[in-house]
Sequence to fold (128 residues):
Amino acid sequence: MATATYLKDGNGPLTVDYLTTAAVAIDEIVVAGTNGAVSVGVARQVASASGETITVDVGGCYTFPKVSGAVIKAGETVDWDASAGEVDDNQATSATGDVADFGVALADAGNGDTTVKVQLMPGTSAIS
Fold:
């Protein structure tokens, strides 16, 4: 389970309802949606059991876990690496379940850094 740390609202609080397929903890990162437009979001308000509908933040700024070897520059779009449960740079090779361009890096995060600050971009991403 990957978690994110809330920093601030970006363009105001943007949320979607999300039907859980497994238990979700507070601050857990989830992918809301299916093939087509999806959003990477954070279950910031409440934990839930499987099969419950919860509200997920899909806007705002968060500190996310990052693939250690990824080199990300401020302003660069970032990808969600589903197998690692971490943010990767947008040049990474996509695999099943990864989400492309789900947010924008707010600061540089280099090789060896384990976190990156991200502004979420709701509903604009494509899933592999």
